[in-house]
């Protein structure tokens, strides 16, 4: 997966072991599910049949009570709140604000440029829109500080969960404790 061939890796797992298999990722036993039927199982079953558990790096950084670790009634309550935020009639209220954010982003980062790197700019745009809509934080000193913290968090989330001084996990946990 180091050569950015994740899609090929997934297809090989499916071809060799089938749409449901057990793999070991970073020393963590993981159930690999693929296909429409498995998506339906994941999204409709109760917390007793199938439980989600994040890798140690995510639990360490986001905490034991983050949204992805909730189960049962607590999970249902939070999921319902998130779904209500994403209903079409609610999203319609955000179209104008999203349009303004996109236009501002295009003027700032795209117009007049001979060359643009799309992926980082799309991440920036998505982050700016979400922080503006959800938290009411506009671009500026606070927004920039939030972006920097978010980037550190993302590096920590995808790191190997070993907390030694030379690892990304160590750098993030240290930054988390003493920002």
Automatic annotation (TrEMBL):
It holds the Pfam family p450. GO terms for biological process: sterol metabolic process. One of its GO terms (molecular function) is iron ion binding. Pathway: Secondary metabolite biosynthesis; terpenoid biosynthesis. InterPro entries: Cyt_P450, Cyt_P450_sf. Keywords: Iron, Metal-binding. Belongs to the cytochrome P450 family. This is Cytochrome P450. It comes from Acer saccharum (Sugar maple).
């Amino acid at each position: 997966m180091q050569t950015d061939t994740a899609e090929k890796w997934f297809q090989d797992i499916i071809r060799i072991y089938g749409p449901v298999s057990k793999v070991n990722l970073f020393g963590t036993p993981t159930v690999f599910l693929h296909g429409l039927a498995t998506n339906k199982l994941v999204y409709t079953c109760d917390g007793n049949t199938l439980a989600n558990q994040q890798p140690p790096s995510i639990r360490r950084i986001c905490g034991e009570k983050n949204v992805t670790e909730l189960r049962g009634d607590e999970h249902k309550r939070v999921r319902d709140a998130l779904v209500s935020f994403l209903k079409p009639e609610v999203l319609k209220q955000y179209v104008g604000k999203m349009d303004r954010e996109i236009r501002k982003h295009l003027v700032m980062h795209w117009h007049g440029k001979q060359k643009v790197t799309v992926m980082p700019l799309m991440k920036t745009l998505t982050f700016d829109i979400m922080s503006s809509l959800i938290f009411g934080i506009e671009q500026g000193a606070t927004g920039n500080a939030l972006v920097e913290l978010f980037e550190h968090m993302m590096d920590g989330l995808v790191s190997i969960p070993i907390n030694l001084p030379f690892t990304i996990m160590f750098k993030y946990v240290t930054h988390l404790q003493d920002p």
